[in-house]
Amino acid sequence: YIQSFDSRILNALHKLSPALKLVYLNEDPDKGVRTKLQELDFVPYGYSPNHALVDQSVVNYCADHKLRLFVWTVNDDAEMKRLTGMGVKDIITDFPVKEKPAPNEPALYW
Fold first, then answer.
1. Of 30, 13, 33, 35, whose CA–CA distance to 22 is shortest?
2. Is the Cα dihedral 13, 73, 91, 30 positive or negative?
3. pTM above 0.70?
């Protein structure tokens, strides 16, 4: 995957090679998923917001539009549980392996 905050770069890459899996990063709390994606000339492979910008409507939008959702940077256990509870599957963290989960608990860091 190629990720970028810059729509110009992603648009140019898409023109050069439409098969690339491009992901649009977002850290702007004033731009929701719909507004942010309107900055692109194509539908990207994925959307990657800062974890603080993710709520159920973002998860639902990405699922409904078949966008892979990559959430970053989540280092807090409670935040990981909040996100996985909403259906987020791809989480970027600084701690990819902490400990094995308890029986019947989701593997948050694996």
1. 13
2. negative
3. yes
